[in-house]
Amino acid sequence: MTDQLPELEPMDDAQGATLNQDAGAMGAAAGAPVSPMLPPGLAAPAYNLNADKEYYRFLFSGVVMTIGCLMPFGPEWDMAGYKTLSGALCLVVGIGMIWSWWGAISVNRFRGANLKWVAFSLAPLLIMLFGMMRAFELPAVVDFGKAGKPMPSGWGEFFSSFFAFNDAPSQEKADNFVRAFGSGKFVVFLGAFFAEFSMLLGVFGGAKTARKQAAAAKAARAASSAARKR
């Protein structure tokens, strides 16, 4: 005999208004603007209409690094990146990026701790970069070539093979190298690189905004001075 569960009733406008009031009070306490019109129900995860786009870039970087650490770091499919020491370090940085910037998006404010995790992303970037510098000397990559599997001899041949979309043998070369080297390493590198690239975009964007604000303030002072002279 199965239990008969009553259907859930939709949240009415009164409940939505209560949530809006609670969200407004929390935003005021945090010093961050909150949209006055929020739909009834729970807020979307890691989403804020007022948050800057740089926050989402950093969050996305952390997600990419975390996914890369869950992918293989070698030819064995079960050799996930987090099972290695370097991969575990990269996973911690990826989770830290997700955790810190998820919170920044929620309150539309970041602190120094958030930028520290962006600085820590240099570690995965350098680890993967140094590994790529000697990628074709790694035992797993060399063993793939000795086993008779077609492999590129260097990065130039790899990229030419990777982007040869209509050439199946060249694509096989690129796929074999990615399998031997570890697809997760490429993903972690891309996530860490995007984090630092987003940091540069934020710095240049902030400098541009500061120049515009300074020019606007100078123009306002000039207009005020001209008005007083009249």
Outline: extended
Main pleated-sheet profile = none
Rg, rounded, reads 25 Å
Number of strands: 0
Provide the helix percentage: 55-70%
User: Beta-sheet strand percentage?
Assistant: under 5%
Q: Tell me the structural class.
A: mainly alpha
Average pLDDT value? Answer: 81
- End-to-end Cα distance, whole Å, is 90 Å
SSE succession: HHHHHHHHH
Which regions are unreliable across 5 or more consecutive residues at pLDDT < 50? 12-19
SSE arrangement:
Blueprint: H1 13-30, H2 53-70, H3 85-107, H4 112-120, H5 122-133, H6 139-146, H7 155-162, H8 168-181, H9 183-229
Helix pairs in contact: 2-3, 2-9, 3-4, 5-9, 7-8
Detailed description of the structure:
The chain is mainly alpha-helical and 230 residues long. Helix content is 68%, strand content 0%. It has 9 helices and no strands. The longest helix is centred in the last third of the chain and has 47 residues. The chain is extended.
Please tag this protein with its features:
230 residues; mainly alpha
Report a brief summary of the structure.
The protein has nine helices and no strands. With 230 residues, the protein is mostly helical.
